[in-house]
Amino acid sequence: MKIWPSAEQTTARAIALRAMAWLIGGLLATGIALAAEPAADTKAADAIHITADRLISDSNARTAEFIGNVRAVQDQTIITADRLKLTYREGGGGPEGVGTNSLDTIEASGRVRITFDNRVAVSEKAVYTTDDKKLVLTGPESRITSGKDVITGTQITFHRETGRVEIVGDDQNQVKATIHSEESGLN
């Protein structure tokens, strides 16, 4: 006997898939921010393949959460984490379901690794807030690697609209940067 998903389960899946498309598009734009240029709006995303041990949707809390061995892939962008939680605004979306305008926050936690372009971001937690278009990576030794260049800190913040990047350390972990210059550098 087949058991078909309920309307709520179908809506939760649509929310999760659209949110992942938006997250990955945002991360691609964040890659532009790493190059210190303002991010351009991203076009509609191609197919996204998501795997996880389970998906829990809570309509009352307005959340959809992928849990366990989360892996999201779109083209050359790969996001892995222990958990990926999507929170959407009350009353968001219309008859077609929840769109990108209804997302409030996207949070990845536990061994977060984001690979895009030639960059890799690693942290314990990554939170993207849609209102201010800001991605914050937190955790000891959070780092961004681009080729041979590496920047580490306790908190790394990308301001998507302005292209501004801020890296903060703490008493145990100062900000560290290794930058390989093609020019003579400080000499």
Question: Which percent band covers the strand fraction?
Answer: over 45%
Number of helices: 1
Question: In percent, how helical is the residue content?
Answer: 10-25%
Taking the alpha carbons of the first and last residues, their distance comes to: 74 Å
The CATH class designation is Mainly Beta
Shape category: globular
Largest sheet entry: 10 strands, antiparallel
Radius of gyration, CA atoms, in whole angstroms = 18 Å
Mean pLDDT: 74
CATH homology superfamily: Lipopolysaccharide (LPS) transport protein A like domain
Number of distinct beta strands: 10
CATH architecture: Sandwich
Domain tally: 1
Low-confidence stretches: 1-7, 12-44, 93-100
CATH topology: lipopolysaccharide transport protein A fold
Structural class: mainly beta
Order of helices and strands: HEEEEEEEEEE
Structure explained in plain terms:
There is one protein chain. By secondary structure, the chain is mainly beta. It has one domain: lipopolysaccharide transport protein A fold, CATH 2.60.450.10. Helices cover 15% and strands 48% of the residues. The chain has one helix and ten strands. Strands 1, 2, 3, 4, 5, 6, 7, 8, 9 and 10 form a ten-stranded antiparallel sheet that branches. Strand 2 and strand 3 (63-74) form a beta hairpin. The model is unreliable at 1-7, 12-44 and 93-100 (pLDDT under 50).
